[in-house]
């Protein structure tokens, strides 16, 4: 089952508005490629974390995130940016840095999620093996048996 984490969704929308302003405004910032890389890293990580999933659906979420963020948004943002603001110059390197940042964000999310699942499995197994039940002669179960 998939549920939506509302605070992450709100944060994603705010980040998207900020990224949209940076992308469509007629401003030129130093370190343009670094901004592209980290903006798409953050947006992809937020998109991935919007959905609270179980292990079986995480593969589907990874594929959807890859298609939507890494392939779709990374390429379409540069094309739309050129259409909306013709003074902006189309740059293939921007697309490459968008895709690289998005892919890096997805990899980080996948590694962290897999690590957390492995850790939870180990903790679950650890507590399962250490649980023992002991009944002493003074316990209430013994007293009830004696009365019968």
From TrEMBL:
<feature type="transmembrane region" description="Helical">
    <location>
        <begin position="63"/>
        <end position="83"/>
    </location>
</feature>
<keyword id="KW-1133">Transmembrane helix</keyword>
<feature type="transmembrane region" description="Helical">
    <location>
        <begin position="35"/>
        <end position="51"/>
    </location>
</feature>
<feature type="transmembrane region" description="Helical">
    <location>
        <begin position="95"/>
        <end position="115"/>
    </location>
</feature>
<dbReference type="InterPro" id="IPR006976">
    <property type="entry name" value="VanZ-like"/>
</dbReference>
<keyword id="KW-0812">Transmembrane</keyword>
<dbReference type="Pfam" id="PF04892">
    <property type="entry name" value="VanZ"/>
</dbReference>
<keyword id="KW-0472">Membrane</keyword>
<feature type="domain" description="VanZ-like">
    <location>
        <begin position="31"/>
        <end position="112"/>
    </location>
</feature>
<protein>
    <recommendedName>
        <fullName>VanZ-like domain-containing protein</fullName>
    </recommendedName>
</protein>
């Amino acid at each position: 089952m998939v549920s939506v984490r509302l605070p992450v969704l709100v944060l994603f929308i705010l980040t998207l508005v900020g990224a949209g302003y940076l992308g469509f405004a007629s401003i030129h910032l130093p370190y343009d490629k670094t901004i592209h890389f980290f903006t798409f890293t953050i947006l992809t990580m937020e998109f991935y974390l919007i959905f609270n999933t179980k292990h079986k659906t995480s593969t589907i979420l990874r594929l959807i995130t890859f298609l939507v963020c890494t392939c779709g948004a990374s390429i379409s943002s540069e094309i739309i940016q050129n259409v909306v603001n013709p003074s902006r110059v189309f740059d293939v390197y921007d697309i490459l840095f968008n895709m690289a940042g998005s892919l890096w964000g997805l990899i980080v999310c996948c590694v962290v999620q897999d690590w957390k699942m492995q850790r939870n499995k180990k903790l679950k197994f650890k507590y399962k093996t250490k649980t023992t039940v002991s009944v002493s002669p003074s316990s209430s179960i013994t007293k009830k048996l004696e009365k019968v």
